[in-house]
Each structure stands twice: as C-alpha cells, then as structure tokens.
Write a structure and sequence with these properties.
Helix content is about 35%, strand content about 20%. It is an alpha+beta fold. The chain has a 6-stranded antiparallel sheet. Strands 4, 5, 6 and 7 form a 4-stranded antiparallel sheet that branches. Strands 1-2-3 form a 3-stranded antiparallel sheet. Strand 1 and strand 2 form a beta hairpin. The longest helix has 19 residues. It is globular. The two termini are about 40 Å apart.
C-alpha cells in the first residue's frame, strides 16, 4: 500500500486583517464548496511561507512542507457550519485554524502516527470474538483493548495505524496519548483515507452483464479499504457523481462493495441475494445485509 504521510489538520496561527474582504464577500453571496475551499487555502497560504498547497477535492486541501511531510484537511464540517451560519465565515475559519494548534504541539512521532491513521469497519461480532480469545487465558474478564465505535447493530468502526509493515489497531491508551478529542482523531483518520483513495484513483465501475444492461457498480480501490471507504467523503462524492438519489449497497466483505440505484428493485434484489449467499464463504466478511445509502447514512433494507 502507498504510504504518503497524510493526516488531517487545521492550518494554524491567526487570521490576518485582509480576511475581512472574504467575510464581506460572503455576506453578499453563498460560497460554493469549491469557492469555500479556495478561500480557506488562500488564507492559510499566508501562514505557511514556502509550503506547497493543492486542492484535492471540493472540500479537501493538501499542504506539503519543506520536510516532505504532506498534510491533508477535510473542510466538510466547516462548510456544513457555514451553510447554516454564512455571516460567521471568519469565525468558522478561525475555529478550523485554532484546532490545528493542538496538533502542532504533538511530538514528531505522534504526528507520524496520526498521518498513518485509517478508519476500519469490522463486523460487531469481531469485538466479541477478540474478547473471547483474550479471556480464554485470563482468570478475570479483560475488556476489549482497542478503541471502537458502534455504527449499527452489525458494524463497528475501529481506528488503525497503517504502517509499511502492518496494520495496528489503536488502543484506548494510545488514543489518550494523542491528547486530542476523539472526534478530531476520527476526522483525521477519515481525511487520511479520503486522500489515500484520491491518490489511488478509486472509483465506481459498472459491471458488465450478458444482456449489456446493468445498473450494478463496484467500488474499486485496493482490496483492503473498499468497505471502510463507504463512510468517507470521497465515497460520497463518487456516489453523487454516478447516481441521482439514494442507492442500495452491499459489502459482504472488506473488498467487495456493490451499488445500485435504490429504485432498481431487480438489481437491488440481485446484489442482496449475492451478498447473503457469499458472505459465509468470504475472508474478512462484514455483513450479509443490504442497506440504503443516502448521503453517507446507512439504513438496513428489509425484504
């Protein structure tokens, strides 16, 4: 796997007085995602002389420092706030920038580890299985050692450091060592994955069928992060660019993600039955169920 030194950050230090021009402009018209991103990058450039900036998505910016470390930030939450508080653009940028100060205070080792973070989706049964294995050799019950978050009844989200030699799940103790809010660490991991998927050129590909008519698409990345990607902004952008409206989705294992328009009942039933029948036989299996995917939110489909 490619290992760029990427992690989410909020570009630091204070805002200059020239920011007033941006704020005044925003009171007259609503900035698009692209314009919002460019405005943020323009302001950030003033505080990182000599660094190279690059817009990598509608709400994504990368900065490469002279040390060669590339940092990425996702502005989705900031833009969501802006959509509700257009008159507070200056405060929104200030808050985004201020959140970087805690990251800048970290040791180089912690920054490297943050740059390696990825979100990983696992079946909920994974938690029970690991706890059972641990407690087989213990006289008293040992809690699950890694940080995780319940997504729904079937799925959990873990954080992992994707190093050149292994994928190491983040323990609760390691999470505390970062001395950052959990939500910020999670956003860093998701933003890292967004950047990684963009570098790979991950995409939705239409599956060809014998009759030549197919609404079934497969998300193609690296055979490791396909399913974990469904909670990323990058995947949401791919869905929105390919389909109109909500979609149906299955992910029987970590590398198999199939997507169809929700109103195509025949194709939806086809991928649902495929996921249900193949799930028990697949390595790294996740879920045998079909879900409605609408703007990044999953809802299980009952047939």
């Amino acid at each position: 796997m490619k290992k760029a030194l990427l992690f989410s950050f909020a570009l630091g230090l204070g805002l200059s007085s020239s920011f007033y021009a941006i704020s005044s402009q925003s009171s007259q018209s609503v900035l698009s995602e692209q314009a919002f991103t460019k405005a943020y990058m323009k302001e950030a450039e003033k505080h990182f002389k000599g660094a190279k900036f690059k817009v990598t998505g509608d709400l994504s910016v990368e900065i490469t420092h002279s040390t060669g470390v590339t940092l990425s930030t996702n502005l989705s939450n900031a833009y969501l706030r802006y959509s509700k508080e257009q008159h507070n653009l200056e405060d929104i940028f200030a808050d985004q920038i201020n959140s970087s100060k805690s990251v800048n205070l970290l040791t180089d080792e912690s920054k490297l580890q943050l740059s390696q973070l990825r979100p990983v989706v696992k079946p909920a049964s994974y938690i029970d299985n690991i706890k059972a294995q641990i407690n087989q050799s213990s006289d008293k019950e040992v809690p699950f050692p890694f940080y995780y978050e319940q997504i729904n009844d079937e799925l959990v989200l873990l954080l992992a450091m994707d190093t050149p030699t292994s994928i190491q799940y983040v323990s609760k103790d390691k999470l505390e060592e970062f001395k950052l809010p959990v939500e910020q660490v999670k956003e860093i991991a998701i933003s890292n994955l967004d950047s990684y998927l963009a570098q790979l050129g991950a995409k939705l590909e239409r599956i060809k069928q014998k009759d030549g008519n197919s609404n079934i698409h497969m998300f193609v990345a690296d055979e490791i992060y396909e399913a974990s990607a469904i909670f990323s902004d990058y995947f949401k952008e791919q869905i929105n660019a390919t389909f109109e409206g909500p979609v149906g989705i299955v992910f029987p294992n970590r590398s198999s993600v199939l997507v169809v328009p929700l109103d195509d009942e025949a194709s939806l039933y086809q991928i649902a039955m495929l996921a249900y029948s193949e799930y028990p036989n697949l390595p790294y299996n996740l879920s045998p169920f079909a879900y409605e995917y609408n703007n990044g939110v999953l809802k299980r489909i009952q047939f």
